[in-house]
Amino acid sequence: MSLTVFLAVLGAALLHATWNALIKTGASKIASMFILTLVQGIAGFCIALSQPWPEAHIWLWLGASGLFHAGYKLFLAFAYEQGDLSRVYPIARGAAPMIVTLVSALLLIDVIQPGEYGAIALLGLGIALMARGAFAHGESRKLVPLALGSACMTAGYSLVDGLGAREAGNAVMYVGWLFALDAALFTPLILTLRGRVALRASAKDWGVGALAASASYGAYAIAVWAMTVAPIALVTALRETSILFAVLIGWLVFGDRMDRGKAVAACLIVAGVVLTRL
Question: Which residue has the higher pLDDT, 105 or 252?
Answer without folding.
Answer: 252
